[in-house]
Write a structure and sequence with these properties.
By secondary structure, the protein is of the alpha/beta class. The chain has a single domain, classed as ATPase, nucleotide binding domain (Nucleotidyltransferase, domain 5, 2-Layer Sandwich), CATH 3.30.420. Helix content is 47%, strand content 20%. It contains nine helices and five strands. Strands 3-2-1-4-5 form a five-stranded mixed beta sheet. Strand 1 and strand 2 form a beta hairpin. Helix 3 runs parallel beside helix 5 and helix 7 packs across helix 8. The chain is globular and about 45 Å long. The chain starts with a strand and ends with a helix. The model has no long low-confidence stretch (mean pLDDT 85).
Length: 189
């Protein structure tokens, strides 16, 4: 009989791509600083992105693709998903945040968060605002702190790329490690 391991998924949602990280989530692993089992970027091929003008249909295709890869990795590694941590979009001050709101990206990201929760209705979902999981830290600093703490590759040996870095950061916060805590991430730089 196959024995399944509890797992947690952390997600950096996106309009065209999303970062995903799959973690051990058994009681002895919840507060343990360790690498994710897998961390990857889910995205649609560029020809699909260019050919599909409807953001809703594009988002559904992206979500289905992400779900399929989550199921594939979960089955391969005998994982049972128990917790889901997702970055919740916020409208940030400044021109970039305002431009994202005007384009409708914030609404599309909120839709993505809800759809991810709906895909896994029996899984405990937690939405973390950007300000909750990384505050005002720039991406480069977050990536350096993650690298100091657990390296830059998942347990399978795959290097973190683009959105996967944020999914890993969200996962570490979901496991109880604050990115600004020098005890876990070394001196502040």
């Amino acid at each position: 009989m196959i024995e399944y391991t509890g797992a947690m998924l952390s997600v950096d949602p996106g309009v065209n791509a999303m970062g995903l990280a799959l973690w051990r989530w058994e009681p002895r692993h919840r507060k343990k600083m360790e690498k994710p089992i897998r961390a990857w970027v889910g995205q649609l091929p560029s020809k699909v992105l260019k050919a599909e003008p409807d953001w809703h249909r594009k988002m559904l295709r992206l979500l289905n693709r992400a779900r399929d890869s989550i199921i594939k990795f979960g089955m391969k590694d005998h994982l049972h998903l128990e917790a889901l941590f997702i970055e919740w979009p916020e409208i940030r001050s400044g021109s970039v945040g305002h431009a994202a709101a005007v384009r409708g990206d914030v609404s599309a990201l909120a839709y993505c968060c809800g759809a991810m929760c709906e895909m896994f209705p029996d899984v405990r979902s937690t939405l973390l605002a950007v300000s909750e999981w990384k505050g005002q830290l720039p991406k480069e600093i977050v990536n350096k702190r993650i690298t100091r703490a657990i390296g830059s590759k998942d347990r399978s040996g795959n290097a973190f790329e683009t959105h996967a870095w944020d999914a890993v950061g969200i996962g570490l916060v979901g496991k109880g490690f604050a990115l600004d805590d020098p005890k876990h991430f070394g001196r502040q730089k």
